[in-house]
């Protein structure tokens, strides 16, 4: 028996209001190693929207398997599926909860028919929110903290975008690892309440970007004999340069985003680079997963443990309910 399904698709890049449409189709009974699953939750991450507009360098694969005569792409990278039916050669079983194994699977849909290797099962002990959002921001935070330097207890980490979902996850995971954090957030009227929230999550210190960029503002007293081994930059421009200036000898600047759209301004050929041996590099989760899908599984296992031990709060997000005929506002 075939299953009626709806997917939010695009055929070419453009603004979400015009590029996206709803495709009603039917999915056949799974055969061989195939799996038919229903969607439990499909988040909209800003990077998903950039895929639709074409601003993200990663291109999702288009397909004619949904019955169209031209290739279409299903939007979305994150999501939680519940297995309904499996082919006779699939090790999965009805009721299993799964997330996409690799980027670009397309999660903005009511149902999916795919090969079992496209999915990875997640523990049923996770909440829907934890499971549906585990594949991007928590993995990013964990890999940023573990992939570049061998952080030791008592070391310091510095980050801008401290109030972002990734920033809050970095803060929480650093606390679990015994690593101190200085989170930089934008100037705001409610700075104290944001700082309080971040300190509750584990931030050791919270400063404004004005303090970050003030050359007379020093973090030396906080750091003492320890060191700022790594700085995470998701903002760009002079906010990033200011992070470099606070790094200790041999420190590393990792850029993973560009929220203010400004080019990276790194004080090259100044003492920060010449005498301190600063390293500047970039990070992209998608490239990591494409290069080494097993690394995703290993990272997921670390994050499951943090959730299961009650050590980590899932990123907060806003919920939107909309019909397939009126979904565009969900993506804005
Ligand atoms: N490289 C990778 O693999 C990877 C993976 C995941 C995420 N990311 C990147 O990580 C960043 C954070 O993602 P997210 O999902 O955690 O974001 P999010 O939760 O939506 O938070 C966005 C944050 O950006 C801040 N912000 C917005 N515009 C800004 C500006 N002009 N200057 C400074 N800060 C600004 C906001 O600060 P306020 O609180 O002050 O409003 C907010 O804290 C994004 O750049 C995203 O693309 C990269």
Automatic annotation (TrEMBL):
Protein species of origin: Babjeviella inositovora NRRL Y-12698
EC number in record: 1.3.1.104
Intracellular or extracellular location(s): Mitochondrion
InterPro entries: ADH-like_C (IPR013149), ER (IPR020843), GroES-like_sf (IPR011032), Mito_Enoyl-ACP_Reductase (IPR051034), NAD(P)-bd_dom_sf (IPR036291)
Domain Enoyl reductase (ER) intervals: 18-330
GO biological process terms, semicolon-separated: fatty acid biosynthetic process
Major site of localization recorded for this protein: mitochondrion
Protein name per its UniProtKB record: enoyl-[acyl-carrier-protein] reductase
UniProt family annotation: Belongs to the zinc-containing alcohol dehydrogenase family. Quinone oxidoreductase subfamily.
Domain of life, per lineage: Eukaryota
Keyword check for Transmembrane: no
GO cellular component assignments: mitochondrion
SUPFAM superfamilies registered for this protein in UniProt: GroES-like, NAD(P)-binding Rossmann-fold domains
Keywords, sorted A to Z: Fatty acid biosynthesis, Fatty acid metabolism, Lipid biosynthesis, Lipid metabolism, Mitochondrion, NADP, Oxidoreductase, Transit peptide
Pfam families referenced in this protein's UniProt entry, alphabetically: ADH_zinc_N
Top enzyme category: oxidoreductase
A Gene Ontology molecular function term of the record: enoyl-[acyl-carrier-protein] reductase (NADPH) activity
This protein's record includes keyword Signal: no
